[in-house]
Amino acid sequence: MSNDKSKPAKHHVGQYVASGDWSEYWTTKISQARQGRIHVRGYPVEELIEGLTYTQSAFLLLTGELPDERETALFDLVMRSGMDQQFINAAVGAARFTASANPDSAIPALASGMLASGSVTGSPQQPAEMLIEAVSWGMRTQDAARRAVDLWLTRGGVVPGFGHPMHKQAEPRVITVRRIARELDGWRAHGQLLDAIEAEIETRKGKRIPINLAGALGAVTADLKFDPLIIGGLGALTYGMAMLAHITEEIREGVPLRIIPDALGAHYAGPPERHLKDPGDGA
Fold it and tell me: Which of 39, 171, 223, 258 could cysteine-pair with 188, CB 3.0–4.6 Å?
């Protein structure tokens, strides 16, 4: 779970080919299955099923350790915050299009929605990476905020974790997530830096560009010391139940094989009608 610089050494297949020893080629620290026995992170699975909530089980799977009361509350906050916002998410469009063409199962549509979850859709991975990097500088919060804004404006012209197509002053979900995270002592170095970056952007642009949900979740999960790869995956999973609801609605009540006609925004901007040969040349 740690986001520090110590990472296990990677192996490449050439090492196994050269040595001829494939004994550790498929290795996992997550679970072990034997005849009549399953252990997850060292715990008998039956104990976990009986004694843990879904949130606690997920935390154990992802981090390798059981969460304490504070971590459980914060992780549960993250996982329930995605909810839904009608069609203001590219992932739900991808999921519903797939469901309209493949109504036999929700799984292909779920996969489509997951594949449409990325930095533009609103993944918390990039905001988390920004915050983790900036906190690692060891600077005063205000100084780190200024440097982070400079850096990301230079890198891509935008600062990840800010802005929303509809909510221009404040994102409703962010207001609640930030308040509850603070109450749970979960808005720590990364959350405080996110606040400072928001203020720095407003000072520079002369207008408010609010923290979005991806930014808030990136801060909370970074403060929980999750790996950015896990944080990105969590962003898709937090919206997974909403996608499943949309998919089921599309299959049961929607329009088979959805299209985009001109009336709904389809627009051709290519060349006018033309032909390989002039119809009047007699050829």
Answer: 223
